[in-house]
Amino acid sequence: MTPQQRRSFLLLAAHGAAATTLPRWAWGQPQRQQSNPFALGVASGDPSAGGVVLWTRLVTAEPGQASTPLTVHWELADDEGFQRIVQRGQATALPGLGHSVHVELAGLAPGRWYHYRFMHGDAVSATGRTRTAPAADALPERLRVAFASCQRWEHGHYAAWRHVRADAPDLVLFLGDYIYEYASPRDSTGLARVHGLRLATTLADYRDRYALHRSDPALQAAHAACPWLVTWDDHEVQNDYAGSTGKGEPEAFLAQRSAAWQAFYENMPLRAASLVQRDTTALQLYRRLAWGRLAQLHMLDARQYRSVQACRTASASGAGAVRTRDCAELAEPARSFLGTAQEQWLDAGLAADAKDGRTRWSVIAQQTLFSPRHYPSGVVSTDSWDGYPAARARLLQSIAQHAPRNTVLLGGDIHQNYVCRVLADAARPDAPVIASEFCGTSISSRSGTTQEKVDAVVRNSPHVLLARCEQRGYGLADITPTRWTTTLRVLDDPLREDSGARTLARFVVEDRRAGPVAA
User: Fold this and answer.
1) Cα–Cα dist 280/504, whole Å
2) What b/e string do you get for 83-97 counting C-beta neighbours within 10 Å, with b at 16 or more?
3) Strand 295-299 vs strand 321-323: parallel, antiparallel, or unpaired?
4) DSSP secondary structure letters along 449-500
5) Cα separation of 124 and 36, whole Å?
6) What pLDDT score was predicted for residue 276?
């Protein structure tokens, strides 16, 4: 068995539901295609008023296919039975891009649902459902958005995605940590499942890791249910990396980062415009999505352009927690969480939202908790916005200065649910409330803290209205012209594939009234 065959075997054997797609040659069987080339499912993303991206990635089974371009046909229809075809065509799945397919549709009707599918040879993919955004001058009655992050394979089944699909969102915002680069721990006590893949460092490793995650039926079903708008955080590459700084030798890390970024593009429903100069070694993931006049979504990238974490040394394993008095670097005004260009882009976007007077909700979708957490010990996390106070102050100033009609920040990363009033000055508890924040817990990844410690933060942070750890789930936002309602959904048991879900809390934000209120 070759190394590539072994990788395929480990990846597909890691999940029982995907075992039927295991190529027979991996078992020494006759060399003919026996697997489903669409075993990794279908997806759509980045909807506009006139188009959307359709995605799939072929699983190659026959000898020689791994290095061969393959033709994939696609269809878009008004109906699930594909009796009323709207568009059809073909695309080439290139081996250099992992046999992924990104079809950018245009000329579609705004505010419409469609069905789509792919064909390769005699194989037909599962049917996906997608939609376009409303027309630019439309004011929709409602937008339902699910927001989620952090789905380490071993820490839980993806039952949350089954419930997301049942909630029928118009759009999913994925805010980072789609995969985790780690090998499974030797001690599997308390884990939902394990896999046989090594620590990811190469393009082949990252491709296999995405294929592992995408073999999960619940995740596949959520991708097929509606379009997604995606960004990344650190684990798509390496824990706590910052810009061009990571663990290991600089040249080796940059090669690893390049491989990881290419794999991200290959496995996400992204537009070709995200490729910087058609180059998979750099991706532009900060972008906007307009939902008519109802909402303007500003999706951010808080990894690629950030300054290195304060007081991070070459011998350190990554970011950490420091006391402000022990780390003067924290306060340096030039340090940025988003990079100068992205800061200016976001500032211009918020200014435009306020100037046109048409946008009801300005949504800042980013990776982590924006509001400060005041620990009794006085420590701050250097990898979060707390580690970049000058950058946070600049964004607060931008929101306060431009004053969009309603500003809401969404985040993930910390594997906890937080609901906050966003203050004009993060250091002053009596400062005016200028925005609302909802930071969602993880799909499956464990929290690294205890509720007792979280409660201590809340006692020292009056702007925090709710903080819960040790729960997995997702957030659901129902947005209308007059009200934003966030429902925090949590799983009964993340170790169970059939886990139920319940509502932890519900908060509302009224039009022109900054700050969430418990419903």
Assistant:
1) 40
2) eeebeeeebebeeeb
3) unpaired
4) S-HHHHHHHHHT-TTEEEEE-S--EEEEEEE-SSEEEEEEEEES-TT-TT--
5) 9
6) 77
Q: What is the pLDDT of residues 389-409, one digit of tens each?
A: 999 999 999 999 999 999 999
Tokens 């966030």 appear where?
486
Q: Is 226 helix (H, G, I), strand (E, B) or coil?
A: coil
pLDDT tens-digit map of 157-207: 999 999 999 999 999 999 999 999 999 999 999 999 999 999 999 999 999
Kind of pairing between the strands at 143-148 and 171-174: parallel
Q: What is the dihedral of CA 230, 308, 380, 487, to 10 degrees?
A: -10
SS3 of 164, please?
A: helix
Amino acid at site 27: W
> The tokens of 202 are what?
């190469």
Cβ–Cβ under 8 Å, residues 368 and 417: no
DSSP state of 364: E
How far apart CA 176 and CA 349 sit, in angstroms, is 22
Question: Where in 209-307 does DSSP place strands (E)?
Answer: 228-230, 275-276, 279-283, 287-291, 295-299
Tokens of 433: 């409330």
